[in-house]
């Protein structure tokens, strides 16, 4: 199912396959067909979501991880397609919602847990700035610690707890949600160029940026991010980045 190395494969938006040793985690599955969902409300355009299809790649996995239940990270299509007995790691606040959907092996992570030789840590996130971040609700990142360590930051901007997570775990691989998602008013709620550059300066890890060009309010393009950063991987949908 996976190689013995640490890698991340982008499917679309924040949906990634993270391989840590012999274990594959499917993170934030969103499987809706293009245009199946409405635009995000109060955003600068009216394009229906998702904007692009999921590439035709092998999505075999050992467990599912959901950083938070916003519809671009967990959708009805994923709930319908996934096996109801798959080990499913999530925020404690959202465990009951997955159980209500019929999943039978829901594993809320308060701090850390173990799975098939990998230690799974839940880490803080801040989905925006100020009052808007509070309105967006709780979000989490996850660290997967095996022989090598991968940090999936989730929907967060750069702030001190992200720096502290990098210092604490010293990961070899960091996956960031870019796109600089934005509403009509207020500051961005996911990472933009300056956030990504701050992470790049704070770690020796391979830095991979996803969550781009798939949802209508993610306005920062891959081309723009590549042009304005150095030593950052910005994969295409379906592309794998391997250490």
UniProtKB/TrEMBL annotation:
The keyword Hydrolase applies. Keywords: Hydrolase. Residues 11-211 form the Metallo-beta-lactamase domain. It holds the Pfam family Lactamase_B_2. SMART domains: Lactamase_B (SM00849). GO terms for molecular function: hydrolase activity. The keyword Hydrolase applies. This is Beta-lactamase domain protein. The lineage of its organism: Archaea, Methanobacteriati, Methanobacteriota, Stenosarchaea group, Halobacteria.
